[in-house]
Amino acid sequence: MKHIIAILIASSLILFPLLTSCSEKQTKLSSDTDQTLNLSDETAASADTAAQYAPLPSRDAGGNDFSILIRSEWAYEFDVGEQNGDIVNDAVFTRNTNTAEKYNVNLKFISSPGDWANHGAFEKLITSSVLAGDGEYDLIAGYQACLVINISNGEFLNILDLPYLELEAPWWLQVGLENLTFNGKCFMVTGDIALSALEEIFCIFFNKGLARNYNTPDLYAAVKDGGWTHAKLLEVIKDVTADKNGDGVMDANDLYGFVSSDTYVRPYVVAYDTPTLKLSDGSAEIIWNTERTYNVVESLIDLFYVQNARYAGAKDDVITAFRNELALIVPSMLGYASVLRGMDTDFGIIPYPKYDENQESYYTTTLNEATMMVVPITVKDPDLSAFLLEALCRESTDTVAHNFYNISLMTKMTRDDDSEEMIELIRSTLSFDFGWIHSMIAVVSGAQYSNMVRDKNSDFASWYASQEETITEKVKKLETIYG
Fold first, then answer.
1. Beta bridge partner(s), residue 284
2. 89-131, pLDDT tens digit by residue?
């Protein structure tokens, strides 16, 4: 973890692009046309970091097509036809153009629906191509949680066996690589090349105006002192409530100390340090069924049904409540800062709390729809695919990541220096749970926490006992896949 923190803070290269609601992925909210992409304004940290790694060799791809399968809902990460004055759009355009010109290659983006509603069809596209042996896709950018189905079919190359990839460099997400590797195999990877993997990092927003009105203690200080815990969260929200419309019924039109939804309950698997599996020597030991997990589930139910909190229907409802000043605190994702920057009342950004003060660190993770990069086993030229994957990710750092991080997130979206410090902390404590990432195979998932909270069922032990045989069987399959 110290190594990860050092790389991330020193480089300051990670991107947090604009995030709209899930239904509006392709309509980005930035209107920063007054800011221009300035490639000559690279930071000293960027130059120093890049100098640690040998430049890629010269290469001429002969002007041939290089086909990348992408999800249409996240097309803005890759498929940009022209510059339009939007920071993210123009940075992606520059990244693509620079790479294409430097290596004489035609980047061809093949777009297909690939969100949760269409994930099955996207997976079948990959499987059909592999079975046909047609080498149609040179790279694939897909849904983290769903690509594991294709991994289970043996359809991707081991990333660790490919040349050119400087996977220890800061343009790759180090913690992603570490937590996606089992038994010397890693089939998907992400980094600055994938905007969604960076915009969808979980965090907490709080309303500074409401905090003052309700005499909320200094949350920044609590985080820095290590005292931002589940108990502190309960303490902060316990007296924050108001029947705003005076109808005598507390509902979505009223003020709560805390508003959340299914999406934001799931990350507590990581945030409250209840890992599902322990990987060692080719084996995956199930370690989820513990006293700590029981306590975490009970604490989450206590949060929603004893204290002044509201369980919303969807993540968009959560951000709507916050924008309407009907919530003191909401869990969210860093990219939503772009949606909130028009608020009249100031807001702050802090990490998810620790479970208790005995927990070693704050932890966060990403929404599991975030983009991962994979290379099909039937790719025509694995060497070229690896080369251009590395080239695109490197180029993303000095265009998309560098410019958006410095201009948009830190300058346009945050409201104070403390929030900037909190963002650094959140980035540095990013983690993944291997079992949860592979939940479509292993049946261990953060979704179980949200299911239990929604059902007001705190008996995790009984649930696990009813599923233990299935979970054990599925985890054995996971060991075989990575065997």
1. 279
2. 888 999 999 999 999 999 999 999 999 999 999 999 999 999 9
Name beta bridge partners: 364. Answer: 430
Q: What is the pLDDT of residues 335-370, one digit of tens each?
A: 888 888 778 889 999 999 999 999 999 999 999 999
What's the confidence (pLDDT) of residue 50?
A: 58
The pairing of strands 65-71 and 139-143 is: parallel
480 lies in a domain?
no
420 part of a folded domain: no
- The total number of residues shown for the chain amounts to 483
On whether both 107 and 191 belong to a single domain, the answer is yes
In whole angstroms, give the CA distance from residue 217 to residue 232.
10
> Rounded to two decimals, what is the model's pTM?
0.87
399 lies in which domain range? 15-199+368-413
Can you read off the two tokens belonging to residue 422?
A: 């909190």
SS3 at position 147 = helix
Q: Closest Cα partner for 84 from 27, 39, 41, 16?
A: 27
Q: What does the alpha-carbon distance between residue 380 and residue 65 come to, in Å, rounded to a whole number?
A: 12
Q: Which sign does the torsion angle of CA 469, 474, 477, 482 carry?
A: negative
d(CA 341, CA 322): 12
- The verdict on 52 and 156 lying in the same domain is yes
Which pLDDT does position 183 carry in this prediction?
95
Residue type, 271: A
Joined together, the tokens standing for residue 207 give: 């309303």
- Pick from 42, 17, 29: nearest CA to 333: 17
Backbone dihedral region of 273: left (phi > 0), alpha (psi from -120 to 50 degrees) or beta? Answer: left
Q: Are strands 283-286 and 277-280 parallel, antiparallel or unpaired?
A: antiparallel
Structurally, the chain folds into a number of domains equal to 2
Helix (H, G, I), strand (E, B) or coil at 233: helix
Contacts of 189 (CB under 8 A, 6+ apart): 159, 165, 167, 172, 173, 176, 177, 180, 372, 373
Residue 175 within a domain: yes
Q: Do 115 and 223 have their domain in common?
A: no
Taking the C-alpha atoms of residue 398 and residue 315, their distance in angstroms, rounded to an integer, is 32
Instruction: Give residue-wise pLDDT tens across range 360-417.
Output: 999 999 999 999 999 999 999 999 999 999 999 999 877 765 555 555 555 555 557 7
Asked if residue 439 belongs to a domain, the reply is no
Q: What span, in angstroms and rounded, lies between the C-alpha atoms of 179 and 174?
A: 9
Which domain CATH number covers 134? 3.40.190.10
Looking at residue 92, its amino acid is: V
Dist CA 219 CA 311 (whole Å): 22
